[in-house]
Amino acid sequence: MEPDPLEEFGAAGEFDPVRLPEGDLDSIQATVRKLLDRSAEQARQLDHLAAAPGPASLPGFGLPPMPSAAMMPPEPRPILELDGEEYESELDLLTDWVEDFLMPTYGSEVTTASPWCDQWQEHLDVVAWLHALWMAYLQHKDPEAGPAGPFVWHRDFLTHCMAAIRAAGGPLSACQTDPERPSHRLLRGPGRSVRAVARDAETAQAEE
User: Fold this and answer.
1) What per-residue confidence (pLDDT) applies to 49?
2) How many CA atoms lie within 13 A of 177 on its CB side?
3) Which domain holds residue 131?
4) Mapping DSSP to helix (H, G, I), strand (E, B) and coil, where does residue 53 land?
5) Is 47 left (phi over 0), alpha (psi -120 to 50) or beta?
C-alpha cells in the first residue's frame, strides 16, 4: 500500500529536507556554475549591444556597406562620347570583335539587299550601332545574366542591329553591294534646320 503524502509533512507542515549523495551535489554545483558563467557572458553581450550606435545612425541601417567609388568598375560609355586616343583604342577593340567574331559568325553575303563596307569605321552611325551591340554582348554573356542571357542578346539586340546597319536603305546602302566590288561612300545627312540657322545668324550679328 502506497504511503499517504500527508504523513510526509513535518510538525510545521513542511517537507523534510532532501538529502543528495555527495556525487550528485557536485554535479549540480558544476551545472549551476556553468549557468552563472553563461548568464554573465550574455549580460556582457547585452551591455555591448546597448552601447553600440543605433541603426538610424549607421549608413545603410545595418546592411552590408556598398563598395567605395574606387572599387566600382567604370561604367561603359557610348563610343561617340570618347575622344582622341581613348576613342581610337575603343575602336580597335570593337574592330577586333567585329572582324574576328561578329561578321564571320553572323555576316550574311554582301548583296544589294544586304550591303556592307570595308571601311565601316568611317560611318559613325554604324560604329555607334556596333559598339552598342558589343556592349550588350558583353553584358548578356556574363554569368549574372543567367542561362537565357545569350538568347536575349540574339533576340533583342543582334537581329535589330544587323537589320538596321545592313538594310537596303541603310547607312551602307551606297557602299559595297557586290562581294567582288568594294565601294565606300558616306551618305550626306540632313542639313541644319531653318530655326538653327536663323539663331546662329542672330548670334553672329549680335557679336559684331
Assistant:
1) 65
2) 12
3) 121-186
4) coil
5) alpha
Please give the pLDDT value at position 158.
96
Identify the pLDDT of residue 118: 93
- Cβ contacts of residue 190 below 8 Å, gap of 6+? none
Say how far apart CA 4 and CA 140 lie, in whole Å: 84
Domains in the chain: how many in total?
Answer: 1
pLDDT attached to residue 87 = 95
Burial class for 152, CB neighbours closer than 10 Å (0-12, 13-18, 19+) = middle
Does residue 83 fall inside a structural domain? no
pLDDT at 30: 74
Q: What pLDDT score does 68 carry?
A: 46
Please say whether the beta carbons of 61 and 55 come within 8 A: yes
Asked if residue 67 belongs to a domain, the reply is no
**The Cα angle at residue 143 between residues 137 and 144, in degrees rounded to 5:** 95
Residue 124: which residues within 8 A CB-CB, separation 6 or more? 80
Residue 58 lies in a domain: no
Q: Can you tell me the distance from the alpha carbon of 158 to that of 160, in angstroms, rounded to the nearest whole number?
A: 6
Residue 176: inside a domain, yes or no?
Answer: yes
What is the spatial distance between Cα 133 and Cα 79, in angstroms, rounded to a whole number?
Answer: 12
Instruction: Tell me the C-alpha distance between 84 and 125, whole Å.
Output: 18
Q: Return averaged pLDDT per consecutive 10 residues of the chain, 208 residues in all.
A: 52 55 67 76 72 50 48 71 94 96 93 94 96 96 92 95 94 90 86 90 86
